[in-house]
Amino acid sequence: MTHGLRTRCRTSGRPHARLRLAPLLLLAPFTAQAQESQPLDSSASDVMPGVDAPLEAMPDIGVDWPDMAQPDSVTPLPVAADEQQAATTDTIDPAAAEPVDTIPAFADAGEERRYTVLLSGVEGIADSTFTQRFDDLSVLRQGQDKPANLAQINRRIKEDSDLLDRLLRAKGYYAARVRGMVAAPPQGSDRLAVTFAVTPGTRYLLSSVDVTGLAETGEREARLRAAFPPKVDDPVDADAILAGRDNLSTALAENGFPFATVDEPAVRIDHEERKGDLDLIVTPGGFRRFGAIRMADDRLFSARHVQEIARFDPNDIYMASDVEDLRRAIVATGLVSSVSLTPKDAGDGEHVDLDINARPAPLRTIAGELGYGTGEGYRAEVSWQHRNFFPPEGAVTLRGVVGTQEQTASFTYRRNNFHRRDNVLTGLVSISNIRRDAYDARTITLAGALERQTNILFQKNWVWRVGGELIASDEADAFSGGARRTFLIGAVPLSLTYDGSDDLLNPSKGFRLGGRISPELSFQNKTFGYAKVQVDGSVYQPVGERVVVAARARFGTILGSSVDQIAPSRRFYAGGGASVRGYGYQAIGPRYGEDDDPVGGKSLAEFSLESRIRFGNFGVVPFVDAGNISTSFLPRFRDLRIGAGLGLRYYSNFGPIRVDVGTPLNPQPGDPKVAVYVSLGQAF
C-alpha cells in the first residue's frame, strides 16, 4: 500500500486537465494530481495540447524530508507546479499576488555574521508539531550558530520560505504569502535578525468525504466508518487525514479483516471555493476468524503450546493486536532470537491461519557472581542453565554458592507458561549450610510451587503462588546454647499480591498490596503447628517531574507456638538492604546469649520513606527506615530501630541500579556505623 495523499485542483465551470506531478517535498510520501483550469487570456505556448495530456513532472526542490513512519514527520499536500507558484506568490486572491521577497535592511559589507530566526503571523496555527518540524528542517536554524554572509543567508531564506509554504499546505493553507527579511542586529545584540512575515490566508475545508468499500464489511460498517474521523467542513489537514487513514487500517485489522488494504487518500482542491473533496478507497479483503497455528519448526515448542499461551482461541474474531501480543509472548520465553507470525488464508473463506517461523536462541547459560554484604560477608555464586531441557520451556538450573556464611548446592526445574500464559511450575531440591549471627543451619529442602507471575513485558495487577515444602534442618541458635536441634517441617505457603503501580522495577505512581500465609507443621521431639502471616504494602506519589515520594510498610506475625520452639530459620528477622538499611543483615531485634546474638521473633514491623530525585540517567535517594522484631504476638513499636542514609541510582535500560549507604540512628551494641547495599531495582 502506498502511503500518501493525492491532491487534485479544479476550477468550477472551466475546461480542465488532469495531470500527475512529482511531490513538492523530496521523499514525502504523497503523489500529487492536479486539475487546474487555464486562464482565458493565456498565450498559445501556455495552452495545454489536450485536456487529458500529462504535464512534465515538477523537479524535486532538494529539501530533505523526514521518514513518514516517524510520528513527528510532516504530512504536506503536494500540488501541481502552477498551484505551487500561486501559493508562494499569491495572496488569498490570486489576482492580487505579491512576490515573496528577501529585503536586506542593512548594507552588505561582505562580512559573516551570526543571526536569529523569528516567525511572525503563524502564532494562531503553529502548534508544537509545526514548530518542531520547522526547527528540524530549517536550513536557517541549522546554521544560525555559525557565521554566514548575506548571500548565504538570502539563499537559506528562499529555502525556508518554500519550507514554510509546505508546512502551511500540510495544515490546509493553500494561498499563503511568506515574506523573508534580514534586518540589522537589534539593540543589545550582535546577531542579525532574520524574520519571516507569514500571511496564511484562508484555510481550505473539506466539502465532501467519500470512503468507498466499507459497505462490504456488513454489520461492522458503522463501527469502521467511525474509525475515520475526517468529515465535511474539517480543514484539509494532511496530518489528520493520514492519521485517520492509519486509524481505519488499524480498525480493519482489529475487527476481522487481516487482508484489508486502504489506498492513499485523494483530495480534489477547488481554489475558487477554497474547498477540497476527499476520496478514500478501501478493499476489506473478507471477514476472517482465527484458524490453526502452524509451526515451521517445532523443535523448541509445538503449535499446541503456542496456542496455550495465545490470548485467543480458534474461531475468535481475528485481531492484529492479539497476533502482536502472541509474538511478544514468544519472544519473552527467551528461547527464540527472532520470530515472525504471518496470516495465511485457510482456504475456506472463513478462517485465517498463523504461520510461525521462529529461530532458536542459545539455550545454555553459565553465570557467575561475586559480592559482599554487610552482615552477610563474601559470597561467590556460579550457575548453569538449560532453558529448554524438557520441551516445551522446561528449564533446568544447577547452582552452587560458596561464601563466608553460606554454602549451597541446588537443582531447580522451572516450566514457564504451564498450560497458560505466565503460569510457572517450579520444583527445587537444595542442600545448604548457612551460618548467620542469628543461627547455624544445615538444611535439605524439597519444594514445589505453581504461581502466576508478573514480568517486565506483561506486568499484571494480580499475581499468586501456591506451594509446598518439605524441610529437614539441623540448627543451632542462642536459645539452644549452641546445641543442635533437628527439625522436620512441612509447609504450604500461599501468597496473593495486587500491583497497581506503573512499573515493575521503577514505580513512580500507584500502590502495591500483598499478603502471604504459610501454615506449617514442625516436628522436634514433638509435633506442633503454627501459621506464619505477613502483609506488605507500598505507595508511590510523584511530586513534580523529577521527584517521587515512596513509602512502605510490612507487618508479620506467627500464630501459635513459642519463639524458642520454632526453627530459627523460620522466624522473622529485620535489618539489611531489603529491610531496615543502616543495620546488618538480620541484626535488629532481641538478642540472647554470651555473644549477644539476634534470635529473631514472632512478630515484625517495618517502615520506609524515601524521596527519589532523578537527574537524567542518575538520581539520588535520601531515605529513612524503621523496624523491629518482637518475641510477642504483636510487634512493640516503642522499640523501633531507625536507620537513615542516601542512595545513588543509575537508570539503565533494564532497570535502576542502586547503591545505598545507611547508618543506624539508635543502634544497639555491636551495630555497624555504616552499611552499604548494592542491587538491581529500587529498594521497594
Topology of this structure?
Blueprint: E1 6-10, E2 16-21, E3 32-37, H1 81-89, E4 102-104, E5 115-120, H2 128-137, H3 139-143, H4 150-170, E6 177-183, E7 192-199, E8 205-212, H5 221-225, H6 238-254, E9 261-262, E10 266-270, E11 275-283, E12 289-295, H7 303-309, H8 320-332, E13 336-345, E14 351-360, E15 364-373, E16 377-390, E17 394-403, E18 406-415, E19 423-435, E20 439-452, E21 462-477, E22 485-491, E23 494-499, E24 510-524, E25 526-543, E26 547-559, E27 591-592, E28 597-598, E29 603-615, E30 618-630, E31 641-652, E32 655-664, E33 675-680
Parallel strand pairs: 1-10, 4-6, 5-7, 8-11, 12-14
Antiparallel strand pairs: 2-3, 6-7, 9-11, 10-11, 13-14, 15-16, 16-17, 17-18, 18-19, 19-20, 20-21, 21-22, 21-23, 22-24, 23-24, 24-25, 25-26, 26-29, 27-28, 29-30, 30-31, 31-32, 32-33
Helix pairs in contact: 2-4
